[in-house]
Specification:
Elements: E1 8-10, E2 13-15, E3 17-27, E4 34-43, H1 55-59, E5 63-66, E6 72-75, E7 78-84, H2 95-110, H3 122-134, H4 177-193
Antiparallel strand pairs: 1-2, 3-4, 5-6, 6-7
Length: 214
């Protein structure tokens, strides 16, 4: 399942979640095994041989995992009886499935209005979509309204030191109610996208808008 709107971090590094998959965890016990249905987050920039489970989550069920030389867990108040984890390693084949779900969502969200040439074969269309998916950071999103591709950042070079150029020395001009309303709507949209923002009177900024609507 894809994941959105949640941020993960480890120490000072941001973790990049790929998606969530559900798994059944079984803790064997002679008096009755405990089966928990948990959700795991697959990270793109994190490799680990173990599952990561929160201690608070496990303590609710009376399970305590100890990170010793030999990893083991106890159940309930009986701390003397230790249960070992199986030593066999099993590969988790969910990364490809998670990627497929994210790719389908990317196509439905970003390429829904795209017009792909009908002259392309099915293989060529799949290769094109795969390339677009690899560089999907270039597309706008809620978190990146202007795209997050590196190497094509927008730079605005203005002379902010005296003497100001003639365009910055122009006096304010009146605007009709219709034009004023259009300006306000446009500015509000730019503020929602994070392109513009308000600043305090005593705040020093490098670039400000040269147009004042009266």
């Amino acid at each position: 399942m894809p994941i959105e709107g949640i941020k993960f971090s480890s120490a000072s590094q941001d973790m990049l979640p790929l998606g969530i998959f559900e798994a059944a965890m079984i803790f064997p016990c002679p008096t009755g095994s405990i089966r928990l249905k948990v959700e795991f987050v697959v990270m793109n920039n994190c490799t680990s041989q173990h599952f990561k489970l929160g201690n608070y989550y496990l303590n609710i069920y009376g399970i305590d995992i100890n990170n010793h030389k030999d990893r083991y867990f106890t159940i309930g108040k009986n701390k003397r009886q230790k249960f070992d984890f199986p030593l066999e390693k099993r590969e988790i084949t969910v990364i490809r499935q998670v990627k497929s779900v994210i790719k389908e969502k990317f196509v439905s969200d970003q390429l829904i209005e795209a017009q792909i040439s009908p002259e392309l074969t099915v293989e060529m269309k799949e290769e094109l979509i795969e390339i677009l998916f690899q560089y999907r950071e270039a597309f706008t999103s809620d978190n990146e309204p202007l795209g997050a591709i590196k190497g094509h950042e927008v730079e605005i070079m203005l002379n902010v030191e005296r003497p100001y150029p003639p365009l910055l020395r122009r006096p304010t001009y009146p605007a009709s109610p219709r034009a004023r309303k259009a300006f306000e709507n446009h500015i509000n949209e730019l503020m929602k996208l994070g392109v513009l923002r308000k600043f305090r009177n005593n705040e020093e900024v490098e670039v400000t808008t040269p147009v004042i609507i009266i």
